[in-house]
């Protein structure tokens, strides 16, 4: 099948505030994830990461100019390539577009590593952990 070998491009925000990471529940409510979504035509990965952080978690902030990295995953017969940006959160809204569908939680990086399922995403989060720890 031609469509299953093509990678769909997504972008994600890894929201940070101090030494905490913001995780949100997945759309089915069964897993902890970071805000991410498909990159729509005419939009950049960075724009998508900012939009998803707002829609899925009600977060605003300053996006790192360069991606932290990327990872691959497979879901429902499709392959995805996710570009991840660090979002230094400056505001967490009381209300946001997907508030009724998702919960957000601020957790230590170590707990985030335990709660995230995807090994590629865990590897990226662990890189942040190394950078954020005092020498």
Task: Summarize the structure in words.
Residues 131-135 have low confidence and may be disordered. Strands 1, 2, 3, 4, 5, 6, 7 and 8 form an eight-stranded mixed β-sheet that branches. The chain has a single domain (2-132), classed as Nucleoside Triphosphate Pyrophosphohydrolase, CATH 3.90.79. Helix 3 (109-115) packs antiparallel against helix 4 (119-132). Helix content is 28%, strand content 40%. It contains four helices and eight strands, in the order αββββαββββαα.
Strand content: 35-45%
What Rg, in angstroms, do the CA atoms define?
14 Å
The count of domains is 1
Query: Which outline best applies?
Result: globular
Number of strands: 8
| CATH fold annotation | Nucleoside Triphosphate Pyrophosphohydrolase
Please trace the helix and strand order, writing H or E for each element: HEEEEHEEEEHH
List the helices and strands and how they pair.
Layout: H1 2-5, E1 7-17, E2 20-25, E3 32-33, E4 36-38, H2 45-57, E5 59-63, E6 69-75, E7 78-92, E8 104-108, H3 109-115, H4 119-132
Parallel strand pairs: 1-7
Antiparallel strand pairs: 1-2, 1-4, 2-3, 2-8, 5-7, 6-7
Helix pairs in contact: 3-4
């Amino acid at each position: 099948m031609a469509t299953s070998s093509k990678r769909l491009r997504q972008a994600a925000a890894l929201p940070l505030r101090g030494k905490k990471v913001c995780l949100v529940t997945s759309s089915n409510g069964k897993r902890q994830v970071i805000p991410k979504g498909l990159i729509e035509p005419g939009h950049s990965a960075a724009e998508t990461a900012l939009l998803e952080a707002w829609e899925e978690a009600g977060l605003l902030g300053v996006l790192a100019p360069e991606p932290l990295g990327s990872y691959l995953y497979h879901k429902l017969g499709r392959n995805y390539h996710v570009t991840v940006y660090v979002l230094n959160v400056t505001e967490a809204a009381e209300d946001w577009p997907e508030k009724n569908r998702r919960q957000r939680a601020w957790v230590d990086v170590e707990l985030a590593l335990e709660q995230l399922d995807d090994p590629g995403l865990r590897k990226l989060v662990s890189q942040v952990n190394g950078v954020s720890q005092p020498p």
